[in-house]
Amino acid sequence: MIFKTHSRQLCKTLSMLLICAATLPLSSMSQAQTTSSNYPNKIIKVIVPQPPGGGFDFVGRLLADRLGKQMGQGFVVENKPGSGTLIGTDFVAKSAPDGYTLLTGSISNIALNPGLYRNLPYDSLKDFEALGLAVSYCYTLMARKDLPLSTLKDVMAYAKANPGKLTYASAGNGSGQHVLPAALWHLAGVNITHVPYRGAQAAYVDLLGGRVDLFFDLAPTARVQVDAGTVKALATSGSTRNSMHPDVPTIAETGVAALELESWFGYFAPSKTPPEVLARLRTELARVIAAPDVVDTFRKAGGRPMNLNAEQTRALVQRDVDRWTKLIRDADIKAE
Questions:
Q1: How far is CA 84 from CA 88, 183, 207, in A?
Q2: Segment 109-138, tens digit of pLDDT
Q3: What's the CA gap between 213 and 123, in Å, rounded?
Q4: Is the peptide bond before 40 cis (omega within 30 degrees of 0)?
Q5: Residue 275 and residue 179: Cα distance in Å, rounded?
Q6: pLDDT given for residue 201 in this prediction
Q7: pTM of the predicted structure, to 2 decimals
Q8: Under a CB-based contact definition with an 8 Å cutoff, are residues 101 and 241 in contact?
Q9: CA nearest 56: which of 122, 131, 134, 115?
């Protein structure tokens, strides 16, 4: 009798354990599905890895404003600068992959940094999922007004005959204004002296004052000086001519080097973000990017609006990471 009682109790205990074991994963799965289906249900933070102002901030805030209105959920932009773009970018890479912390990414922090830093704290391809790229901007190569050289070919010929005598400004080591010309000089086989400044404004002061010879800057910013006639535009860095400077050839058109660079901007999420959340964000962001008022805003600011699907976006990011990492290391370009 005692044996039968113990057997019945043992059977009950085992049955309860089996039921709990069977239902626990289902409960956890159900909770995860509920969380994804309710997304978003709190404020979404967008990290801009540079100070207010500039391309990162402009694009990050415009997209956040439109997404917030469209999704009926608050989007808050937080500037997190430091060490170029490293601190803010790494912060997002290590954030919870729940769709509530996003990154404003550009060719600089996603594609250029892997070549510039040997011990980069994040992996651009493994730690992030691209949500969408909204706009790209090309660079314009300017020369001081009184430089007795009128074309990029003239500059290259002079530089080859006079190594190190010409100078070029940048907004700092590792910036796009540094990496692009350094790569161009490397491909063309010339030596032009780098003069780094703390920001583009200081570089312009010396370019206009005739104390530095050349400066590559984003086309929308360069346009002000080109149109005013205070500098000479020699080339642009895009795959096609820029509509703001239709008479200025691309680098490739000059025959100096097969090189192009357009600084694209968009949103990225931590790589382990749930697929359902990624899909929702990609769909919503694509709607924002395609909106006529957003397209018009980017065009008026001198940008080229982008319209890529997820596969095309992924391929573009992969291409630029691979291409620029190799080129930067081959040219021995340093961020420090």
A1: 9, 19, 23
A2: 999 999 999 899 999 999 999 999 999 999
A3: 36
A4: yes
A5: 35
A6: 86
A7: 0.82
A8: no
A9: 134
